[in-house]
Amino acid sequence: MLKFIFLIGLVYIGLKIYKSWSRLNVAVNRTVSGMARGEIDDVMVKDPYCHVYFPKRNGVHFKNNGEVFYFCSKECKDLYIQEMNKK
Ligand SMILES: [Zn+2]
User: Fold this and answer.
1) pLDDT band for position 25 (50/70/90)?
2) Cβ of 60: how many Cβ atoms within 10 Å?
3) How far does residue 69's CA lie from ligand 1's centre (Å)?
4) Quick one: DSSP state of residue 26?
5) Distance 78 CA to ligand 1 centre (A)
6) What does the domain layout of the chain look like in residue ranges?
7) Which of 13, 42, 45, 46 is the most exposed place for a label (fewest CB within 10 A)?
8) What is the mean pLDDT of the segment spanning 73-85?
9) Distances in Å between the alpha carbon of 17 and those of 7, 47, 51?
10) Per DSSP, which regions of the chain are E strands?
């Protein structure tokens, strides 16, 4: 009988931990979606290669003839340069 009560207690504690953990996840998700809507104090720029908007400070920049381009990732930057060189 004591073992049974112990098990119930264990499940209860486990549920409590799980609940606080999922609450934390919700908070993180809210921050991420807030960022996607551009609510944070940062400039959103468009990737000229994949046409995705992202915060400028997270981007990879590339200078070409005095013009600065911002890319969401190094891959996009490399692919864009490749495309440019093909023309
Ligand atoms: Zn991109």
Assistant:
1) confident
2) 15
3) 11
4) H
5) 10
6) 1-40, 42-87
7) 13
8) 95
9) 15, 40, 41
10) 44-46, 53-55, 60-64, 67-71
